[in-house]
Amino acid sequence: MKPPVEVSVFLLSLLVHHRLSCLHSTGGASLNSIISLVSSLFVVFAEFTFGGMVGLTNALEQDRFISGFMDFYLKMGEPHLSTSYAVMMSYWEVAHLILLLTIIHRMFSGKSYRSLGLLWAGSSIANQIVLIPGVVIGKYGSNIRPAFFRNAPFFLVSFWAASLFFSRPREMPIVTADKIAAEQKKGLLSRPADLLLSLLLLGAVAFFVFRGFVVLDCPLDACFTYIYQYEPYLKDPVGFSRVMMLVYFFYAVPLVSILLYGLNTPGCSWMLDWTIFFAGAMAQTQWCHIGASLHSRTPFTYRTPADKRWPVIALNVLLAIVPALLALRCRTNPAFLMKPVPKGQSNDDKKKN
């Protein structure tokens, strides 16, 4: 019996050195016919699936669920993978594995996988954009081994895959012209969900800017109090938290500002894509940040203080939830984001045309 293709790819990732022969034997079809059915994205997903399995193995070993798999590689290849941030990043590979196998299943089933691809691309790029600079400028920057440079192809390929997903035709939902016109006539006060999301996004921008100032050693008393009493993890010499806050400061702030514009301007259909991409990025980074600030591998002096733990966790969880809610809002009620209906053209007119 021919197994599902996503199962074949999962097995393929475990036996990467023999991946082509495994695919040939488990798929029940010739190698040439398999290659003719899928795009180059399939090869990318297979490699990322293997990387995800390695990451999960590392996380389980660092937390002492298993042993004897990663010692040599950590010593001779990437010692930073033993840090709390890298452990949480490795656990997040489970989410990547689920996304990748789902995409592969939909790819072979002839179903759309564009939105899932954008979600994965946002998460994967956010992963690398913090990891690579964090290693270079942080505690492990003086101990970089050749194996570290394997991250560069993963980083570049993630951008390439994202560009492919963005360039694919968007599947626009069917919305009547009358509904589009009615929604786009409403002001922000007439759209309470959008008003609430706008306020939450403004709050996120303010918090991104504030924490950017904090890691840039702003002398204000508020910054000093925050870094010592609420999130001392931001001064962890490993460097990942500092890089993440700077990424938020220089990249997330402009992007959220653009998303705010799109949420308040009719016809910004690009919101359907960028909100998904941003939701994936924020979910990955906030998972790693929250987990690392509480993990036992983080020195005690840099962990979130026990008396401030729940407010800090709640605030950081909210930063991950708001982009997801925004993406969900755009997907479930896209009428306001559709292209404006030409003046004087009703739904009946469109049907006649």
From TrEMBL:
Subcellular location per the Swiss-Prot or TrEMBL entry: Endomembrane system
Keywords recorded for this protein, A-Z: Membrane, Repeat, Transmembrane, Transmembrane helix
Membrane topology, from the record: Multi-pass membrane protein
One GO CC annotation: endoplasmic reticulum membrane
Top-level taxonomic group: Eukaryota
Ranges of residues in domain EXPERA: 38-162, 193-327
Protein name (record): EXPERA domain-containing protein
Organism: Xiphophorus couchianus
